[in-house]
Design a protein that fits this description.
Layout: H1 5-19, E1 34-38, H2 67-80, E2 84-88, H3 98-106, E3 113-118, H4 127-133, E4 138-141, H5 147-154, H6 159-171, E5 176-182, H7 191-196, E6 204-209, H8 227-238, E7 242-243, E8 252-256, E9 263-267, E10 280-283, E11 288-290, E12 299-300, H9 301-306, H10 311-322, H11 329-334, H12 345-348
Parallel strand pairs: 1-2, 1-10, 2-3, 3-4, 4-5, 5-6, 6-9
Antiparallel strand pairs: 7-8, 8-9, 10-11, 11-12
This protein binds S-adenosylmethionine and iron/sulfur cluster.
Iron/sulfur cluster binds near residues 45, 141 and 346.
Length: about 350
Amino acid sequence: MAITTDMKLYYYLSRYQFMNSTSLYDNHGRPINYLRLAVTDRCNLRCFYCMPEEGIKYLPKKELLTFEEIERLIAIVASLGISKIRLTGGEPFVRTDLMALIKKIKQVDGIEELHLTTNGILTAPYIPELKSLGIGSINLSLDTLDRDRFFKITRRDEFVSTWKTFELLMKHGIPVKINAVVMEGKNIEDLIPMVELTRNYPISVRFIEEMPFNGEGNHYPVLTWTYKKIVAHLEEHFGKLVRMSDPNNSTAYHYQVPGYVGNIGVIAAFSRTFCGTCNRIRVTAQGVLKTCLYDDGVLNIKTLFRAGASDDEVIRELMNAFSHRAKDGFEAEAKRTLHPAIESMSTIGG
Ligand code: SAM
Ligand code: SF4
């Protein structure tokens, strides 16, 4: 008897319903428990690797998921077993009333962890409240410790604001990961000083391979700084790094300079070595589900919501998408309808 799509879907649904009510698996047996949700595509920086200098064509406001739609979506995915949310963007803090949304998400049953990724420019005033709301951690994007290089990379003179946010996060004891995209000719001289931050700060400094999602495609990266080259560069300076064990489903390889309190993460985002354990899905600012960073969207949740779909209908569509997930970023990229993969990371939600 031929196995139909509906039978496969039934298999995944029943696995969810009967085997373990808090687990959701894709068609490759990988658990899915982490949603990264972009709350906006707008941003107050113009990072070279993310957007063209003139910015991108922003979505009209009515095309963004409303807070009510975001809450509904989070309640639905939480009922399926997703327990970890990261709000990202664009820059999350340019969305009006972000803190109101954060408070609502914190109250959704089943959401155990809420994290944020931010460039830190508008973040500082909200840090005490974020702390009291129990934010899990903050990923702070900072590619350089030098004000001039910051300006060249982000095209805005905002280093001081981001650094102030970093200091306040430390003061309030909020767990921090610094995200730095490694770029030939832009910030290589920063790699060692950034690792030096881990000498006394209990943070993770994560070096990310540059991906093609820069919104223009005219500097589609020929990847010079692979994760292997990044590690070799650091070891040339620090000597042998300690290879740490990586947390479950981590996308980073973790290292530590012996005796330092913090650690280093190296993320092979372009080499895509982590797909075998990928536990995350993304929803873009316009409400499109991506089951892989490299796909071009597999389900428009906003359209479903606005067409009046019931929660059960939305769940059925989600489960169908989870049961057709690409096995890795290469397969997802090959299946894209839009080529090449040059959309801005701010529309994807990095
Ligand atoms: N605006 C916030 C920020 O910068 O932290 C959140 C959104 S941003 C798109 C999320 C992350 O994506 C940032 O850490 C950024 O460095 C990373 N990113 C953006 N474009 C990238 C690219 N082309 N390659 C690798 N990482 C990228
Ligand atoms: Fe904005 Fe973040 Fe993209 Fe930089 S990486 S332009 S801060 S969305």
